[in-house]
Predict the 3D structure of the following.
Amino acid sequence: MKRWFQSKSLNTPSPVGAVLSYLILGVWAFLILFPLYWLVVTSLKISSQVAEGPFYIPFVDFKPSLDAWRYILVGDLSNDTLRTFTNTLIVAPISALLALMLGATAAYALVRFEYRPRVGMILTFIGCLALSIFAIYVGVPWQIAFAVSVAVFIIILQTIGRRFKRALGNNDIAFWMISQRMLPPIAVVIPIYILFQRLHLLDTYAALIITYVTSNLPIVIWLMRDYISTIPIELEECAAIDGASRYRIFWSIVLPLAIPGLVATFLFVLVFTWNEYLLALFLSSANTQTLPLVIAAQNATRGPQWWNMSVLILIMIVPVIVIAIVLERYITRGLLIGAVKG
Amino acid sequence: MTTEPEDSQPSRLHTVISTAERLAGSIFILPTVLALLLLSIFPLLASLYVSLARFKIARGGFTLNFVGLDNYQKLFLGSERTHFLGSFAPSTPVSWIVFGVVAVALAIFLARYLLKARVSIGGLIGRLFLILGLGGLTWMLVHTLWSGGRLGTVSTTLVYVFVGIFFQYILGLSLAMLTVQNLPGRRFFRVVFLLPMMITPVGVAYMFRMLTDTSKGPFTPIWQALGLVDFSWVNNAWGARTAILIADIWQWTPFMFIVLVAALESQPVEPLEAATVDGANHWQIFQHITWPAILPVSMTLILIRLIEAFKIVDLPNVMTNGGPGTATQSLTYHAFINWRALDLGASAAVAYMLLFLVTFFGMIFVNLIRQRTVETL
């Protein structure tokens, strides 16, 4: 009787515990899979079958049809699907990788170095920014205004900048970074549109990638900061004593040990960029449209085209699932076993 | 920043290397800081200016006329007040009691700080802000939540954020604990649990609109059995909010789940083994080893979700169109409505109020809760 409640090892649950675990996991898996099943069923219906009420099982309740799948994959919409699918496939992974690289270095820096940006310096920066905006407002060409304020900034920094004593710490920098995500996209989308219009980058991959990388950087930094800070500093100290440079330490010790965190973070950023809707709506038109725009477009004048929508949503998840299955094995235990003795 | 000891007679290569070493701190962080500065300052300032102006379509473009704080005044005192803050019911004994309890708690919080040996001006101002902010929000909530009051978009957003995050974290942590056990098939569960996050938010919203339909959705027999055939989510404020919350929890629990799985998996094993040898039970191991190890990641997760959840817009927009009335509208949705009506000034003002609100809660979270829990370990 007692052995039913006793676990064999640290990580293996007791028989009763295992049954309970499977029960809970099964219930949640059902709650997740049922809505997806409903998408599959809906994608096999035609409009009258959706309108008449709920039908649950194809062939039993209703006669399934592949009309919607045909329409999306080989029919009228197939050109749009292929084009937007390729665009999404190009933009999302590149943005995610760039954000991960930049963000991981910055996160490492915030964990292992100590920064003390002076309050005075920041105020000078804001002052110079105000100066250049005022100059542009008065009518000075922006190149000159920009050059002058940069010059003023450097001069002040070099002369009286060293006198400013009050300084901020790493936590303040991190908070500033995450605060970049606080404004709702609806408020920033028009300024960003104007910005890229001036740079003649509208409807290019560059515009989407730049926006996605910067908007996801704060999340990467915050998540990676925690993963990196769990890596024992002794390992890095040993390497430093052996003569490895900071870059070498980062590349061959910190990054390999942070792989579970890197993989999890990469997945998020990939998913966020893969699914992003509002910025894509503004920054892309004919050439670089992404898939979420096509889904939203199915809510047409004739009402939502549920069957087409279901097909598109299902097609859109497939690549991410494949990537998740491939990457999931890296989120595993044991990378740090025996790393530190003592 | 660290400085390396320099050799007495450095060779050229050596100088280059040591310079690179000395600048490592800057080189690691500068690209990120520059990227964020370049792409964030302009939109921030531009929308601040728009929030202080009135936008009009004019011949061949548009005009922006500076109107000062008009847009904000409209939100707090003018025509948008009931939409933004809610309609206030007269005070009842219950609302006085709740408000009194919160006020006393805040007063104790301030008194304890003032009685401490080290009081700084910055700390005092920050705490006064906190007391005013929380006091005001409580006053608003006790007058709009019951007995004839109606929630404004601020309170609705707060309900979404805090209820949603609470359930997402609890569910995410429990599921993560279950799937790091050595169970056959756990990889299957992990991938399945990730699925909701991978669907595009607009898609999730449309999917839940299909599911919650009481005459064509899959749960129709259940609604019929309960006698709710003609019932629609659009008619009941709290019903509609619950539907949106369920969709939100369904969609974002995976985010908590996968980060916590990674955190649990990267825990060193030795302390766990040592504790087992010493005869600690599961609860003791969790309380003294696992929980402190995942606490920093949890705090980050909650902060990120706090910031993201305040921006909820797709679910109310697609599932209920903000209805019934304005009951399910969030702040971003409020901004979106003004934006669609081409009232860009009012839209930016709502967005800036959202920014203040998120910054307020983010500061409280980082300065009080996160520091206390993480840094005292």
